[in-house]
């Protein structure tokens, strides 16, 4: 299933290449997985295969904690801890249909901001010497759904409310009806499988 999620961006790539050609952004894109590290923008991939639902969210840290540098204060550490706590509760963020009976089986959160303080300080001392590097947060969720046919889509209204720095999400979904792409926002937070 994870390989399916990894293949999803490549399956939908031709449609997004044309959109990317019109994207004007001056950041160095050689760091991280987001094609264009754009504050306010994130990416979400979701695949429903039988009873398994895999969801992966990739976002600049700026969208979720308000900064991308190593924590410089207790307030910064608190923002990171709060974001992590919220990301560990994906049911509230993803708006899964209750009738589908999806239970979270596994969560993986990755970011330089989540690493141990000692290693983290060293990495960011190095990063601060190189302007243009960006911290990202990746969240991967694995759900088991008792009634997967009741799951018709995702409603990211909770994610937009919890993380108001996220203005738009490029969503790519694979489900029983094939693959779909959608650009989501607080005004249009729902993506269908």
TrEMBL record:
Residues 1-19 form the signal peptide. The keyword Signal applies. Keywords: Signal. Residues 174-193 are annotated as: Disordered. It holds the Pfam family ZrgA. This is DUF2796 domain-containing protein. The lineage of its organism: Bacteria, Pseudomonadati, Pseudomonadota, Gammaproteobacteria, Pseudomonadales.
